[in-house]
Design a protein that fits this description.
Layout: H1 14-21, H2 25-33, H3 40-51, H4 55-69
Amino acid sequence: MSTDTKPKGPASYFPSIEKSYGQPMAHWLGLLAKKPGLKHMELVSYLKTEHGLGHGHANALVAHHLNAQR
């Protein structure tokens, strides 16, 4: 049985996001929390255009954020 503790799914991007953009995850998730009612791709576009995130990183953040709300 494997004891692999590596994050899976969107969370696997979190270390790279923090390193690439110099902000902790709480910062990015806080920004998303201030945008209620926007759809997935609207949030992705917001992170890309307003904060310069790449598509993969923005998508991972939004997926995690929306899944946590469910």
